[in-house]
Every structure is written in C-alpha cells, then in structure tokens.
Records
---
Amino acid sequence: MREIVIGGAQMGPIQKADSRAAVVGRMIALLDQAKDAGCDLVVFPELALTTFFPRWYMADQAEVDRWFETQMPNADTQPLFDRARAHDIAISFGFAEKTPEGRYFNTSILTDRTGNIVGKYRKVHLPGHSEFDTERAFQHLEKRYFEPGDLGFPVWHNMDAVMGMCICNDRRWPEVYRVMGLQGVELIMLGYNTPSVNSQMGSEGLEQRLYHSDLSMTSGAYQNSAWVVGVAKAGDEDGHPLMGGSIIVDPNGFVVARAQTEGDELITHACDMDLCNFGKTTIFDFARHRRVEHYTRITSQTGVEVPD
Amino acid sequence: MREIVIGGAQMGPIQKADSRAAVVGRMIALLDQAKDAGCDLVVFPELALTTFFPRWYMADQAEVDRWFETQMPNADTQPLFDRARAHDIAISFGFAEKTPEGRYFNTSILTDRTGNIVGKYRKVHLPGHSEFDTERAFQHLEKRYFEPGDLGFPVWHNMDAVMGMCICNDRRWPEVYRVMGLQGVELIMLGYNTPSVNSQMGSEGLEQRLYHSDLSMTSGAYQNSAWVVGVAKAGDEDGHPLMGGSIIVDPNGFVVARAQTEGDELITHACDMDLCNFGKTTIFDFARHRRVEHYTRITSQTGVEVPD
C-alpha cells in the first residue's frame, strides 16, 4: 500500500476587487483544515490567486499584466508555501505566469512536502477565442491572454508516486491522460474555472456541464488506471457563475469524494497508489494491447479530414 | 435534421450446439421487429453468428475453423441479407472471418439499405492471451484465434452520414474514437461479448463492468461529438455468463436507450446526425484546439516508459 491522503481544496468565488493577500489567507485556512484532516497533499484550483479574468475583455496590456505573477513564490504567496512546509503538506495550485521573456501562460505548480517546487505545467488546451466575440453571452478570452503551454505533459516522482498535472479544459481531451499514462502516471491533478453556463448554448444547463466534467475525468482515470483529482473555483464572481463539482476519482473511474457546495470546501480521500497496478497490468497493459500503427492520424493531423 | 432510426439488436446467448441457421432465424426475427419499429439501420453484436468461442481452448485448427466464415454473405447468412433488403434496412454485424489466404480476423461489416456490403472492419484491440492460462477462472483466447485487424479505423459515407465501426474491447481505447473522430465520424457502431465476470478478478462484479462499458462509450461519444451504438451478446452461453447493457449514446454522451434484459432485445432511437454539429464546431473543434506537438508519445511509443 502506498497511501497518500489527498485534499481537494475547492475555492469559492474571487471577486475582481479581492487582493492576493486575502485569497492566500483563504488558501491557508484550507491548508489548516487539510492538516487537521491528515492530508499529505492538497490540490487548489486553476488561477487560484485571482478571479477568472479571461471573462473580461481588456485592450490595455498593463491592465492584463496585473493578473499575472512574475515569480513564484512571491511576496503574496510566500505565506502559503511557508504554511505548507510547516504542515509537511505538498501542494499544487494554478496561477497566471508571465515569464522574464514576457511570455504568458496558464500555469500550475507542484511542490514536495518541504515547499520546494518540483513540477511546473503550462496549460496546453486553451478554450475560447482571442478577439471580442459579439455572439457569446460572455467572453472566454484564454486564447487572447495566454499562449499554449510549451512543456508538454511531463510527470514527476513525488511522495513515492508518479504525478502529473493538467488544467481545466485539458481534462476533456483523452490525449492528455494518455500521454501521462504512457509515462506511468498514478495521480493526475487539475484545477478548473468552468462557467456554469455555456456561452454559446445557454440552454445546455448546469447538470449537463457537471456530467461532462465528471465523464472526462472518470474516463481518463479508468482508461489510464490513475487517480484523478479535479478541483474547481466555484460560485459567483462579479455576476458570472462558475460551477463546483470538485471530485476525487479512483483508478477504476469511480468518484470517491465530491464537493457539495460552491464555496471554499475541502474534500479528502486516502488514495492508495497501488490501486493503479491491476489495470496497468491487465486490461490496460499498453505494451501488450496498444496498436500504434493504427493511431497515426492522432499525431499527423490536427483537424478533421473527412475522406471522400 | 438528418434522422436515422437505429435499432440495437441485442442477442441472448448462443450455445455451442446452436446452428448458424437457428441464429440467423433469431436475427431475422429481430429485423422484423425493427421494421415494425421504423428502423433504418440495425446493429447486431460481435461474433453474432456463433457462441463466443474464444473462451474455449482448442488445439486442433480444424475445430477452430468451424467457427469461421470463409465468405460473406454465405448460404447461412444470405436469408438475413435478403430480409434486410426487403425491409430497406441497413445492417451491421460481427463474425469470425477466415480469408482466402488463411488469415483469421474478428470482423464486422456494414451494409447499405439494399444489402450491399459497404464497409468492413477487423478488430484491432484483441484482449486476453494466446496460450492456455492456468491463472484465470476461464480462458479468453482472442490473441490465439485472431490476428489484430489490418484495416485501421476507416469511416464510410452511408445514409447521408459518416459511419465507423469498432468491436468489443476496442471501445475501451480512446484512440479508437479519436481516429474516427478525426475523419468526421457521426455514428460509431460496435458489438461486444463481454463476460459478466473478470477472469482475473472475480470480485469485480457485474455493476462495475457495466459501468466501465458505459463510461467507455459515453466518453467516446462526447469527446468526438458522435452517436455510439453498443450492442451485446448477453446471457449464459454453456455456463459462461455474458453481460448485456446494450446502449445508444447521443453526441453529448448521454444514454438515450438501454437494454433491460440479457436476451434477444431490440432497443431503438431516432438519431439526428445533425446533433453532432454543435460539439464538432465549438468545444471539440479539433482544428482550433488540438495540439498534436504534445501528443507524440501516443504514436511513437506502445508501452509505458516511466521517466527517471
């Protein structure tokens, strides 16, 4: 048994006017809860430090820049790293990253139990659009404010397990789980900010959107025999609702913990990494069963090509 | 609207002693039911003409050969093709194929509404093993009796839709749906013979096995914005139970029809191919969102390679 007690630290809404310091205070409160619950590792949402700013169209780059971090940790987040180290808890969270070269990414990091950053991921599948869209009920400008991640889907050895990360819309793409699965991933962590309403189909409904979120993560877990932890930023941000539905999924694709609210809420589960072994050595023993000669379109072709 | 009324013709058990003619008689009865129900297309299971013989270890090739068809249609199946043509119904079913060159495949075919075969698929992902396995509760010798399919995952234009096929264990592999999705598939048909018991983990239970079957098909449908029709051969074949659970899944990943029995049973749904359009042009618009530069492991690597 290789047990890791994992906390999914769902966060309620962050308003535009909220300071980083206030947000970090809430994250530290969740860390304290996690310590009391015996957690070894705590996963926070995508863009955990700020409101989900890609919903706002900003023409002025200086206005954009204020949502980005130029180093990590920094003065605002150092207290979070310090508390994690004090609690002997590894953490993962997302933030908007501006590099020294002036590049912009939607990023998440993973630490060990001493607060050292051991992994960094930059979101590959940016949803939405890059210019103001008059057809949508609201904007989703991730393709404007970020460039697609340039680090691929690496995995890291941490806490005697193989861990990987992805972010939000990445979770809907089976390629993401598979690339990590091919590296033996045992735990996939992800955060998300998912609007409760489809900006292009208002009638879709929250229930369907939660189902799609679950479906993406449960199938990714099952088909790669890995734990998946998906953590929402939820609730009403300046009039724009984000869905909750944070879950922990076991390597059989079953949801073993689920958030009940749209606020700051910790969900936990004692996750045995050895539960990954059965699937990885039987039905999903890739070496015995995969037939890559028939998968060529997946990497040779980006869009749809309908044969004649 | 491009509506196709689809019938999923689940079949109950076929015993070793049952003749092809008797089985075809049952298939024709299901076709007649489908005609009464207004069906345009009927999908039958994998290896629809015989018992699921890969559960039996056979050392004698002549004994193996009697489960295979050397042409299609043939004398036993011609009445099925004739009835389908008379009813103006396209059909798909699976059978064991021996080629003139003496090659063995687990195959399915698709006809148009006049009984002409317009598509052929050979199962790529063969589960199980090739030699007698003393560790298993029962045998699953697909890797012994078949070679992996050599046709890839083609799609066909049929009935004003883009259609593809896969078979049984193929449905658990997201690569299968994606390769067809990249060809614009709108309807994926598959049959299966899935034991109700995991031969390597008896405690797994039928409920979990049905969930995994559903999960594979619902996620494949959603992530590729396509209809999926999965049809079981079910029930007790000479003391070996096969699960039912035949379903029709819409392009949002919702189950819209489900078999209730483990016997011969027709499920139907009026499937509008135009329901595929929304997903294919928004969240799963592959050309805009896929990032193939980060998927290289999927085709360059068969088995797991854990990084240092």
---
Amino acid sequence: MVQGIVNWSTELNEEWLQNYVDDWVAFYRKHTKDGEVASYIPKLQEANPHHLGITIIGNNGLEISSGDVEIPFTIQSISKVISFIVACMERGVSYVLDRVDVEPTGEAFNSIMHIEMNQVKKPFNPFVNAGAITITSMLNGNTSDEKLASILNMLEKMLGYRPVLDVDIYESERDSSMRNRAIGYYLLETGLLESDLNITLETYFKQCSIEISVHDLAKIGLILANDGFDPQRNEEIIPRQIARITKALMLTCGMYDASGKFATYVGVPAKSGVSGGIIAVAPPRVRDEAMPFLSGCGIGVFGPSLDDKGNSVAGIRLLRHIASQWDLSIF
Amino acid sequence: MVQGIVNWSTELNEEWLQNYVDDWVAFYRKHTKDGEVASYIPKLQEANPHHLGITIIGNNGLEISSGDVEIPFTIQSISKVISFIVACMERGVSYVLDRVDVEPTGEAFNSIMHIEMNQVKKPFNPFVNAGAITITSMLNGNTSDEKLASILNMLEKMLGYRPVLDVDIYESERDSSMRNRAIGYYLLETGLLESDLNITLETYFKQCSIEISVHDLAKIGLILANDGFDPQRNEEIIPRQIARITKALMLTCGMYDASGKFATYVGVPAKSGVSGGIIAVAPPRVRDEAMPFLSGCGIGVFGPSLDDKGNSVAGIRLLRHIASQWDLSIF
Amino acid sequence: MVQGIVNWSTELNEEWLQNYVDDWVAFYRKHTKDGEVASYIPKLQEANPHHLGITIIGNNGLEISSGDVEIPFTIQSISKVISFIVACMERGVSYVLDRVDVEPTGEAFNSIMHIEMNQVKKPFNPFVNAGAITITSMLNGNTSDEKLASILNMLEKMLGYRPVLDVDIYESERDSSMRNRAIGYYLLETGLLESDLNITLETYFKQCSIEISVHDLAKIGLILANDGFDPQRNEEIIPRQIARITKALMLTCGMYDASGKFATYVGVPAKSGVSGGIIAVAPPRVRDEAMPFLSGCGIGVFGPSLDDKGNSVAGIRLLRHIASQWDLSIF
Amino acid sequence: MVQGIVNWSTELNEEWLQNYVDDWVAFYRKHTKDGEVASYIPKLQEANPHHLGITIIGNNGLEISSGDVEIPFTIQSISKVISFIVACMERGVSYVLDRVDVEPTGEAFNSIMHIEMNQVKKPFNPFVNAGAITITSMLNGNTSDEKLASILNMLEKMLGYRPVLDVDIYESERDSSMRNRAIGYYLLETGLLESDLNITLETYFKQCSIEISVHDLAKIGLILANDGFDPQRNEEIIPRQIARITKALMLTCGMYDASGKFATYVGVPAKSGVSGGIIAVAPPRVRDEAMPFLSGCGIGVFGPSLDDKGNSVAGIRLLRHIASQWDLSIF
C-alpha cells in the first residue's frame, strides 16, 4: 500500500485518491481466500471468489471505481431495502411497521425461529427473510410482474435505467429455495401475508434476481446519504422520513448477525446480499468539512467470497479500512 | 401546547424555546400514567410516578431545563456506559471487545439465555447485565471501592464534582438482586470474570447506585456528542475512538429490547435505566445549520414510570417528540 | 358415582363393571366444559363438545363400552402410531430411527423449532409433526393412494375391516394446514424427505382423515398390549420388537407436551389426536393376577373438548380415574 | 463371548449365568475407550476410565456381580431419585409436584434455559439440576446436616447401613460448581426455594457426594422394582404410589437427554450420574414367567467413562445388551 501519513483534509487530487483506493482493493483482495462463495444455488457458486470491486460516489461529484467493477451480479438481499422503501411509499410507514417489527436480533439470517420467538407475532425486522417476504406481499399489484414493477420502477428512478432479471438465477432460486417456501407457509398460517403466497414468493425470488452493478449500489447509497434526494438530478426520489428510517434499519439490522459489529467498527448504514454485494451509506456530516473531497457518499462493493455470517469477507474489511481512513462513521 | 407552525431554523429567543419545552413536558407528563415505577427493590418503588424532567445542553451554550429536574435519582444501567468507557480506556478497546460481543438482541434485558445462545460464548453486548458485569470485572482495582473509584473518577472529570452513592439503594440491590448473582456465577463458570465474583458484584451494585441528576446526564451526553471532548472546559475526556464506539453501542443496544424501535423512531444514541433516567446524544450535523440554537446537544431525562421494556414511558415519548420537532436523528 | 369401597380383585360380574364405567363417564362428562373443540379447520369445530365415550377390550374377552361410542371421528395424530409401525415394518427399525430421533421434548406439538434445535438435525420424535411427515415420506408407494394403502392395509389387518376417509376433513386439512406445508418445505430443505413433498403431504392429510371409532382404538390398543399379537384372532399383526418400541414412544412422547404428566399420573402408553381420540394400552402384568377381569387391555376414548395441550380434557381425566381404580400403570 | 443360542426360559444354573455376565462385562469393557471420565472436578477425573462393574439382584434371591464391583464411587445425580422420594414422603406428592413439573425435555442436563422456557415457571422435572435443587430445599431440617440426614436415613433403611460422604468430592463440588450456584440464585429470584440458598446448595453438594457401590444401587433398584417393598427384609420402605411415580420419572427423564433413546432401546426406568453410576429397575412382569431366575430385579452399574450425554458409555451398552437378552423392557 501507499506508505506515509496521509492528511485527508488536505485537498487531494483525484489521481492520488484513485491510487489509494487501488492499493486498498489490491490489499484486501488477498482476504477473499478467507471465505467462500454462496453455494445454495448452483449459479451463485459459479462466481469467481477472487473478485473484489468498489465504486464510491461523493456528493461533491467525485467518483472512484476500483477492481472488478464491470461484473454484474444479482442484488439478492439488498433488494429488501428497495422493497421496504416502496412498501412504505405505497402503504405508509405505519401500515408497514404495524406488520413487521424493527428489532435487530442476534440470530442467523434465515431462521424460522425468529418469527416464533417474537411474542407480538411479527417478523423481527424487514431484513430477515420472514419480514422481507411479508413486505413483498404488501406491494401493489395482482401478479408477480405487477409487484416486481413497483420495485423496478423505483430502481429506474434511482438509476436512470431499468435493470433486468438474471433469469437463470431466478429459476434456480424459485426451484430450490425450500426454506423460503417454508417461511412463506408459516406466514400464511399466522395471517401475515397480504397477497397470494405463490405470487408473493415469485415476486420475492424475482426481486432477488435483479442484476445490478457496484456503480448502481453506490448511486442508491448516494440517494440515501442525501435523505432520498438525488443530488445529480436534483430530485427527491424517496420521501425524507422513509429514507431516514431505512438508514436506521440498515444500521441496526443490515448485515445479518454481524450488524452490531459493523455498526461498531465501520459505523455506516449498510446492507449486504449473498451474491457478495454491499451497499453502504455515508451521509454528509459536520466532520466532512475536514474531507471536502467526499462530503457524504454512497458506496457499492462486490466481493462474492462470503464469511460465515453471509457477508462479503473482503468487502467488509475494505469498507472498514476506508471508513477508518476517511472517518465515515456516523457516530 | 403552543400552537402554530414553527420554523425552528429561524433564530428563536431562549424564552420561546423554554416555553415550548415546558409545554411538551406538561403534555407528556400525562403519559406517566401508562407505566409503572420499578418494583424489584423497595426503594425504587418509592419514586413518584408522575415525575418527568428534562435538561438539554447545546453545543452553542444554550441550556434548557423543564419539569422535575431537581429530583436526584440513581444512575442504574446508565452506569454501563461509563464502565464500558473506563474499561476501554484502562484495558484497550480490543481487550474489552474480545471478551464481550457487540451484537444487539431481540431478547429481554436481563435474560440469562443471552449468554448461552451466543455460540462464541461471549455476552451479547456490554449493556446486557452479563456483559456489564463482565466489564465491571475488568476495571482496575483490587476492592470494590478501588474499582468504583475508576468510575467515579471518570464521572468527576465529566461533571466537575464527585457523585455519591445512595447507600439505601445500594444495600437494597446488594441484598435482593438474585438474578445478577445468578448471572455472576454463570460468568464464573464460563471463565469470563476477571476479578473475584463478590468484589465484582459489589462494584456493580455500587455503580448502579450512584446518585445523578438530569443535568448530569445532559452533560455526559454533550461530551459524547462531541466525540469525548468537553466543549465547556475545552478538554478531551474520552478518546475519540472510544466515544464513537460507545455511541454505536448505545444506538444498537441502549434501550433494552426497544433499541430498534428507538433507533427507528427517535434516531439518536441513548441509554436508559430502571430508575427512569435516559441519556440521549445528538451529535452536531450538517443539518444543524438549520438549527443554530443547538448545533449538537446532550439530553438528560428523568421519568420513573416505566413501560414494559423497562424504559421511561413518558421520557421516550418526550424524546421522540423533541427529536422529531428539532430533527435530531443521526440518520 | 357408585359409592363404597370396591375390592377390584374380587371377581365382579360384568353388569357391575358396566355400572361403574357408566358412572365415571357421566361424572367426567361434566369436565368437557373445561375445554374447547379444535378450531383450526371448520369441520372439526362442528364436533359436539359434550361427547364422551369409551371402549375397553380386555385380554380375557371382557368388553365394556359407555357413553358416546357410536360417533365416528377422524384418527388425526393417532395415525402417527400406525404410520410409524408400517414404516418400521417396510423399512426396518434402524432405517427409520436413523432419520427420526426418539427424544421427548417440553415444547408444543407442532413447533418448527423442534427441528432446528436438535443439533443432529433430525426431528425430535415420530409424533411431532415434522417426524410424522418424515415417516410418511418413507412409506412404500409412488402416489398418495399407494402410500395410504400401506396404512389402510395395516388398519384392515388390525380391525377386520377397511376404514374410509372423511373426505370433507381431508379436503379441509389439505387446504388449510399451512403450518404442515411450512414444516414440509423445511424438511425438503434439510434433505429429510424421501418422497415428493406434495405426495407426502397429501398422504399425511389423508392418513389424518381416516374415520375411526372408540372400539377401533380399543382393538388397536389390545393388539399393542399383547406386543403386536391379536388374541382374538390368534395372529401376530406387528412384529414384537416394533410393537414394544411403539409403546415406549407412546409413553414418552404420545400426549404432546403433557406426555410426562400422563406417564406420571396415568402411567400407560397412549396417543391422542385433535379430534378428541385417545388410544391407551395397558399390557398384562403380574399385578393383573389381582384383576382377572382384565388381564391387560386396550382402551379407546373419544371426547372432542380439548385442553390447552390438545388432549381430550375429559378423556384424560377419565383415563386417570380408571387407571387409578384398576391399577393399570405399567410402573 | 459364550457362543450358541440360549433359551433363557430353561432353568440355568447360577454358574452359567455368572459366566454369561462375565463375558458381557469383558466385551463391553472395550467400549470404555469411546468416552471420557467427568472432568469438571479434579477428584472425579482421577477415576479409572477402564472400570466397568455390575450387580444384579433378582426377586428370586439370585445375585450376580461381575467386573469392578469393589470400587466405591459417589452417587452424584442418582441422589436426585432419593431426595425426590424423601421430599414426597415428607411433604406429600402433590406439594412436590406443584413446585416441580414432570415433563422431559430434549435439552442438556444442566441448562438454566430450562427454567426460563417453561411458561409455568417451574423447573421441567425433578432430575434437571434446577428441579433437584428445588426439591432439596423442601427437605426437612434447618441445617444441611439435618436435611442430609433425611436422605441418609432413607438410604440406611434401604441398604441396611449408613453411607458416608466422600469429603474430598464434597469440598471440590462445593468450591467449583458455579453453575449450580447460578441456578440456585435464579431459583431464589423466582421464589422457588423453600430454604436458605447456602444451606440448600450445601445439602445438594453433600447428597451428590455420598459414597455408594454397585451393590447398593442394585438393592435400591430391587426395592423400586417391588414398588417400594424390600423383598429381602419383607418391609415397605417407600409408599407404593411414590415408588411408581419415581419409576415413571426415571423412565421419561432419568438419562439426561438420552432418556428417550434409553426408553426405546433398553426400556427400563433408570437414573445415571456423572461418576459413572447407573441404577436400573426391572419390575416383575407376566413375561418373567419365562425367566424364573430373575422375576424382577434391580441393577447397579459403574463405568466412569462417559458419553457426550453424561451417561456411562459402556454401562449403557451393557444394560442394553442384558435387557435385550433377558427381555427386561417394561414395554
């Protein structure tokens, strides 16, 4: 890595920053060997475990990309952020939060026990599978394509283009995710589903199979960093209250059962997915006066080699390093 | 309450602000009837359930107090914040976090199950009793008075005076808290305690019995809001990294199993205790440019009537209202 | 009730015995008001909560029936006894018990948690739903009708006639039991199912819907009391080892999470179902020399008003009374 | 092992039987290497893992001993059987069972979770530590020696001599068993203890440290096999109802979380302890007509090498073999 003490508050030229990020990506790429790619569906297992890429888009116009940023991947659990936002916009925040709680939990990410153990009989939060499936069932539309359109419309507004599905992944998830079907029937039993189960699950599998890039994740992060406002097109995409609640949820529940550690050691709202993507959100802060080259940013990371919590093993370390170097923590 | 639309960004004179806060305290005082004072030790049960008081100390010198701010009360679980900070300063952050995890949990605040269910055999976080007792066992000193001195020294540095114990409460807790003794023996069994059990528990009961005021809580909150720096005496009290980790923990785990809801609906790092105290921390933010009368603040609340999670029932609602009116959320 | 001290070891004529049983049924019928009929499917809810009937068939030829013995009802969970026996006969005991454990559990009868919490990843026992569905998946046959035939063949051998399905109940269960579908998909995820899920569930819903009478239950009980040998037709129906393992399972796991209490207070192998049926097995014992009028017996009970564990509220008390009076406990 | 097909119903001379048992002990002694001696206190760890001994005392006067029957050992958890019997005799069965439930559980033997998870707030059964400590607190006496005397009196009546404590083991348990102290304080918190905690725990540690032999265990087993009646001295030691409830509890909860497997594969009431002792009870049955050389028996086993459930690894296999050969199962 580039040696020496860096005073980030000094204005750096873009080339220098790019060099630093390139160095860090090169360094943390070695950490990809400490994890494994997701294996529960064959298509995900084909991912190259050595891949690591990052895009950072700052509020001041700076954009840095480094590593394997050209590889498209499926959005997976990061779609839970989008469906939560859309459901809140379509139904109202209180409608959604009356049906899904917002408490983090120390348990593993896809446990059925979650639902059973919360005495108020609501899924623990929108980012456990039970909560996410419940939220998908609330989306407008009578078919899975209509429901999916709600999500794709939001993504199109955010990204400026309409993402497509990876049909292989979708079919693979649809045919193999027996645990999500189990959760679905459990939700049906407890009366939490607001749509037909098959339509809900089909939508859920489709939303997880949306193809995305690290640049897309960084752009979504930038919008969230600005409380739902897109500074590049000068337009509010998400109502402010919903954007902020979403960030609170990402901070407390976004990284599976490593959420507490991520909040403590990295300190920014984030959400990961089993394909290796992470979206991270660094809002502008008073301290950013000391870092004029960013002044708030969105970050997209891709690194399909996962740790035992289901998070990108190198991605998390890279984010921790950057957050520490550039003092991105919201705390 | 004072009617009309308020534009808080307009500079308000201090009298107006005081009037608003007085109104809110009067309004939320009615909510004290929705809870009950803690009953597990007789002395706590003597608290007046109708009490509600608040002090807000802003970075810009503004200080507002309203309601029952003259009533001293014991710090209880809020002392876990202080002992965590002291242990990190005495032993180093990584030493402490190697022994106590930082994951929130959906379970009730004093459950022994916490320890058993975390596979790595560490208490879930420093704010569940098992974690707090483990941390107290790490404090410097060979006697409970020496260990307590570590905490009192820190409080004296923060507050400018050395708080005293409420001896009745201390003796009451020492003689009645069988659950904490159970937890203590469990920790001894698992090898987590770093001091003699009786000395550790004695220290723990003493630290919970330190007498404090809402003004004290607001002052501690102000120091945390400034990353450990006391703006009033121009002095660093807590190393920056430790102050920020503490805030991350408060946000994810500070309000028992309502922590997720507090993060979502109020959005500031906070810690509550069963005597009815809450400390809340609103760091300065870019958005505060719109609220020059505060520019970051510490808040102390006291309201001994508790909800079923163990948090001040009126205090939480008052904080939610203020955070919403003045846009204090860190998200 | 018939008053006076009774010396049951004195030979009583059949009329006297009948009078006693009639008295007891009349007395415990009043207890039917302490429970409620199962409500999870409409057809079950139509049951008359005041019904209570019993048939006792002794090894020595004595047969006593009293109360509502003419009402047919569906076998429900009692079918788990039959499917377990058939699977053991078709596959071998060790094949079956390699895939389903035999440990009782303090948890509720249909919990999904059961599967997750047993570290060896097997359903806790053949009588929790997860275990029963796994066992149904092992039955011979490629269709649900072929699999069901295995069960009906066994029942025909035991009863001398081929029972029929209550099609309304079957369709109702098939269309409403979302929890069993949830369990089914969970089993599919964990690789425990040995047949197609839909065929397995269809079979399971059919086997639960077999129509039966208290006399039938008493007859099955008599065969189990004789270690699988039918004393009336002088023929072995179930291999001895399988019959005895079945009784051990009934004793430890047969009455949902009241199994321990039933073993302690009644003391005979038994299995209940949500339609209100109970099958109880009292093997011949040395002590029966003192009770020559029975010398081992099978008992069938029907009382659709259920307690909060899912067992016939009056049926359990009637069985406890009879077991105590006639000293039926195997202990 | 002795070869050939054995017809046990043929009267065998005592020498032959002795030869068979000697063979089996020699064979299963090899299995001692599949386990480990208890290590939680140093004194227990000194046990010789290769030891295996058995004594069988039949109702007809036959007594067979084989292997390491001369080694004294501490009674440990088998004392829970005695304290339960004594408490029922002193307080009445319903008093005891109102305070401790009788449900088996799939959980490990000394879990604190047991208490918390049973909604009625009673320990799951008298043989988990929480239940046993609660029962010890009910024993007559104001000091631990007085309470212990209740247990020693009962043992003296059963055995014809008054056993002594292994003081080293007692002191070791007293000083090291932090988990039992944790359970004790938890019971104190929930109001379940009926005596001073320290006196209760002292009694509990003493009762576990009573020195015993396999012959003693066999004799106690014989008395239980005869419903509390000692056939050798022609005297009732335990009331019949209590003896039978005790056997029901042993069958459903006696072998930690292998109780279900032991009931299924061996089929007799039994209780084990971590020093490697097992007491097994085979009541006389109709089938015993075929085995006149026993006609009901008590069995004591000692084999300090334990399996992962805490049961004597070779002892369980030896018992299974004997129960199968001689058809001892009560089912």
